[in-house]
Amino acid sequence: MSLHANAEKLFQIILKKRKMINAVFCGQYLFIALLIGYTAFLTFGQTNRDMVYEWGVTSGTISLVFFCLSIFPGILRRFGRNSKVTQVLLLFRRQIGVTAFLFGFFHYLAVRMLPILLVGVPINLNPLPFEIFGFLTLYPMSLLFLTSNDYSVKRMGVWWKRLHWLSYVLVWTLFFHVVLQRMSIWSFIIGVFAFLEVLSWINLGIQMRTQKRTKSLLQ
Q1: Number of domains in the chain
Q2: Among 64, 143, 174, 196, which residue has the fewest nearby CB atoms (within 10 Å)?
Q3: pTM of the predicted structure, to 2 decimals
Q4: What DSSP state is assigned to residue 121?
Q5: 137, 86 Cβ separation under 8 angstroms
Q6: What pLDDT does 116 receive?
């Protein structure tokens, strides 16, 4: 059986299991909510603070991975690549985006907000640029999270799409947030996605100009 046939077969299986996969995502949201509550309990009791911090760092990494997955289909389509992988990611793009936000929100709570609110840890915005780009990523992303539902799509109309264009900016604020902390494989990965995002739009613009020029010549 060819690779294309295997991909098609896998895609059909995923389509049939779509409700179950959506249920898994919902279970994941519940898990994160419970984890936030447990983390608040540990932070208030001032126990296992190192473990809570590590959870926060890990959740930030997971958030970055899901964010990259959420913008990957758009990048591929603007490059004219439409594979089964793209279609699968598009099927669950909303759930992937919500997951990216929730893990990012937990990252912020565990590393910064809960220690400040529950333990009285002083607010330390050092290094300042690193903190600023973190805020510029999380808070606009919360708007995308709150409008990631069918009701918002219907009520907001064209403004929904305009609001969600923020993701093209957030990939850069996330890149600077990560790279200003330290150079790592994760700063390299988000940097690659940020540049691919720009290149994909340039490629789309060139394609549209070429098509327009060709159309005018044929008329």
Answers
A1: 1
A2: 143
A3: 0.88
A4: P
A5: no
A6: 78
